[in-house]
Amino acid sequence: MTRLCLCEMCSCGRHRCPHQPTTLYTKGSQTNVLTEYTEKYPAYKGHTHPKSLKPQQVYKTHQDMMEGTTTFRTDYIPYQVTSRPERPQAEYKPKPGEIDLGTTYKQDFNLYEVQPFVPSRPKERDHTMNAKLDTVPTYKEDFRHWEISRRELTKPDMTYHPPDAKFGNSTTFQDDFIRKVIVPRESYKPLKVAKLFNAPFENVTSNKLSYVPHHVEARYVKPPEEYKPSGHPFQDLTTHRQDYLGLPGQLPKSCKPEQLKLVSNMPFQSNTEFRESFQQWPVSLPQVHKSVEYMSPTTHMDLTTTSHTDYIKHQIQPFVAAKPFSLPTKSSGSFQGNTTMRDDFQPWVAQRQGMIRKQEEIQRSSGKMEDLTTFKAHFIQHEPQPTLSFKPHNAQLWTNDPLENETMYHTEFTPKRISMCPASFESPPGYVFDNCDDQGHLFFYKMTSADRIESPKAMALTA
């Protein structure tokens, strides 16, 4: 049996083994390949490691019983607490007799007879009349309308007035320039005019003189062959039907080990290390402070106050204002909205100044444009004569000789057998998987007919 890798079995060049990291970086290696310290370092005998004086961090449990007493409980002495006595409130007893409400202001103040103040200004009387008010104010009476003439401006008139006469000053270019008459040059170029000849056109060529017409026969058409059915029966027997006998065969045995259930009659041991090493200590319950129950009073609650009992109600009249109410005065006449500004102001008619435009010096033509050019004026139209084509027609040439359809590819082609790449299968046919190395290469054994008969292990693997 020959041992091959999956990369060597591939015949198409598209299959590779799944490469893994190299053996230097494998996690399962025992020796450290990155350093040589463990190999070359000599071990000395009789050398012991120094003992550490550091105490071990082990929790030591207290073996005695836990006391629930504290310093507050031992030093605290309970005393009998009584409620604070309330101070009794003295009852109110009104004094007999009348209250003296006199003050020093009342004793020293002397009353005088005071008369009301009479204003010297007469009261305003509203004289309402239905007639129209026709009065002249002092402004209109005293004001005299003067005729004011418009003041002449001292600013000179700077408006531009173009001159009516023609501008007669000449420039230096006009004085120095001497105009010369341009004489047109005589053209020696021949005129592009078609020359007409009276002689007939000679249309005889060498092709017409040398060409010999031949008689072309009709193309041979091969008659179609009629279909003739065969008289023999159709043989539909295939190699599968011929070789398949339909004999019962043995099913392949599975190499997978049976999954036996481990069943035991022994009881389940639920003891744990925590249950075995745990020691239960008696713990006293904390004391709960009981609150005093509330007892509601049985007697009626007196809600009266000293202000409520000592208050004496007096009959007092409300305050009356001595100021008369001010009533709004309304006039029945129409409102006069005329003012001196409206009467004296007269709006002036203002006109907008027109735009100042310069007169055009060049006069535009009013007639129709003559679009006649020298080309249109001198052009003489001639009737074109089409040229005759002497090119032969694209006629198909037929021949009775058979077509030679043999090519170099058809004669020299050698058909090759198309084979499947064995590395494309999950389990290549004719190969048995052996092992996989550290680099990820998959190795297979190639089996022959003799190896398949002799090796029972290979037969089991192929099955």
What is the helix content? 10-25%
- Characterize the largest beta sheet: strand count, sense, and whether it forms a barrel: 3 strands, antiparallel
H/E series: EHHHHHHHHHHHHHEEHH
Over all CA atoms, what is the radius of gyration?
Answer: 71 Å
Globally, the shape reads flat
Catalogue the unreliable spans: 453-463
Number of helices: 15
Structural class by helix and strand composition? mainly alpha
Strand line-up of the largest beta sheet: 1-3-2
Mean pLDDT: 78
How far apart the termini lie comes to 18 Å
Q: Beta fraction of the residues?
A: under 5%
How many beta-strand runs? 3
Summarize the model shown:
The chain has 463 residues and is mainly alpha-helical.
Topology:
Blueprint lengths: L1 E4 H4 L27 H4 L30 H5 L28 H5 L29 H5 L29 H5 L29 H5 L28 H5 L29 H5 L28 H5 L29 H5 L29 H5 L29 H5 L18 E6 L5 E5 L2 H6 L1 H7 L1
Describe this protein's structure:
β2 (431-436) and β3 form a beta hairpin. The chain is mainly alpha-helical and 463 residues long. It has helices at 6-9, 37-40, 71-75, 104-108, 138-142, 172-176, 206-210, 239-243, 273-277, 306-310, 340-344, 374-378, 408-412, 449-454, 456-462; strands spanning 2-5, 431-436, 442-446. The protein has 15 helices and 3 strands. The protein has a 3-stranded antiparallel sheet.
